[in-house]
Specification:
This protein has 193 residues and is an alpha/beta fold. The chain is built from 7 helices and 13 strands. The strands form 3 sheets. Strands 6-3-2-1-7-10-12-13 form an 8-stranded mixed β-sheet, sandwiched between helices. A 3-stranded mixed β-sheet has the order 9-8-11, with no helix packed on it. 37% of the residues are buried. It catalyses: (6S)-5-formyl-5,6,7,8-tetrahydrofolate + ATP = (6R)-5,10-methenyltetrahydrofolate + ADP + phosphate. Its EC number is 6.3.3.2. This is 5-formyltetrahydrofolate cyclo-ligase. GO terms for molecular function: 5-formyltetrahydrofolate cyclo-ligase activity; ATP binding; metal ion binding.
Amino acid sequence: MRERDSLSPEEREQRSKQIAERLLTDPLVKRHQTFFIYCSYRSEVATNDLIKGFLQAEKIVAVPLCLPEQAGMQAVTITDATRDLCCGYRSIPEPIPSIARKQTLTPSQIDVAIIPGVVFDRSGHRLGYGGGYYDRFLGGLAPQAVRIGLAFSCQLVHLLPALPHDIPMDVVITEEELLRWPRLEKVLNSSVQ
């Protein structure tokens, strides 16, 4: 995380734009309708351009609402990233309470989940922030979703130790490359049937 934090705001912005463009032009975006995407926080890959791009493409966009008392999350749909978000759990942007009560999305409706991480490896494994929120959400509630990790190239390592409860990514996108793994084809083929 130190390397990510050491990037200047200008570098993070430029690299985030490259990552957003790479994802927005990928065939996965055209193929799917419902996207669950994290709201960027601190030095993470910025997701503002992605959220706007999905909304402009008339996609359904849901963002996480953290439920710390349950160690879980809900997916809440938004239509405007500026108007519909406020400072939430640990100061991470989240849906405003009035939206969260009315616009919860069933996790089984999610086609693509876009996930942050501290580090990703070349096998698709991810090291998160230690709470297990995304692993529980993706593994138990939204196993059908295509899992895309966003990272700067400095967050990509050769190999991470993985535990059985760690949910691997199907795709990892950096400003320099796009990595895909075999589960992606299985998920895409099952969604066609």
